[in-house]
Design brief:
With 191 residues, the protein is mainly β. The protein is 4% helix and 58% strand. The protein has one helix at residues 78-85, and strands at residues 7-10, 13-16, 19-23, 29-36, 40-46, 49-55, 63-69, 73-74, 97-109, 112-121, 124-139, 145-156, 175-189. Strands 3-6-7-9-10-11-12-13 form an eight-stranded antiparallel beta barrel. It has a two-stranded antiparallel ribbon with strand order 1-2. The longest helix is centred in the middle third of the chain and has 8 residues, at 78-85.
């Protein structure tokens, strides 16, 4: 069976032919979940993210660069969003963007792989590993070649210098250290 136009077979999966894809901000979401009061979870996300995905001739040499507008954080509560933008957390006036630059692809199996790279929050850069799933390849009704990925990871916010917290009378703290991150991204091939 031959691969559809614009794709090639790799490891049993039809993947895009080499090229550059711009991340489509209108169809990309970076979400997060954090523990609150040690008994519930707060969910939120960033509404503005962009970047590029470069699919290499050797798919394992492909790379990604993403920039997230820190001020676009949205948890659905204006006061909480304001606090998250403050120097206690993201300090968006001093560090307006969060960035991720991949350094390698590892562990490819079917449409799933691990993407390792450098995540920068505030002025701290740490290596993180994302579990990524290639969601597919399609041509839009407007003739654009589009790819989709989803990814998850977990970070310790304190490793990025975000240490603000409050102790609770009952033990524990107001905000958990571990942050779960989920990403749904769509890329559009550039000429």
């Amino acid at each position: 069976m031959t691969a559809p136009v614009g794709t090639r077979e790799f490891n049993g999966v039809n993947i895009p032919t080499p090229g550059k894809f711009d991340i489509d901000p209108a169809h990309t979401r970076v979400s997060f979940t954090a523990k609150h009061l040690m008994v519930s979870k707060v969910r939120g996300g960033f509404t503005k993210a962009g970047g590029t995905i470069v699919i290499a001739e050797d798919p394992l040499q492909s790379h990604v660069e993403v920039e997230i507008d820190a001020a676009s954080i949205d948890t659905g509560v204006a006061d909480r969003d304001g606090h998250l933008k403050s120097p206690d957390f993201l300090h968006v006036e001093q560090w307006p963007a969060l960035t991720f630059k991949s350094t390698r692809v590892v562990g490819f199996s079917g449409g799933e792989f691990k993407l390792v790279g450098d995540l920068t929050i505030r002025d701290v850069t740490r290596e993180v590993e994302l579990d990524v799933e290639f969601e597919g390849h399609a041509k839009s009704p407007w003739g654009q070649e589009v790819i989709g990925f989803s990814a998850t990871t977990e970070i310790d916010r304190e490793e990025f210098g975000i240490t603000w917290n409050q102790a609770l009378e009952t033990g524990g703290v107001l905000v958990g250290k571990k942050i779960k991150i989920e990403i749904g991204a769509e890329g559009v091939r550039q000429a």
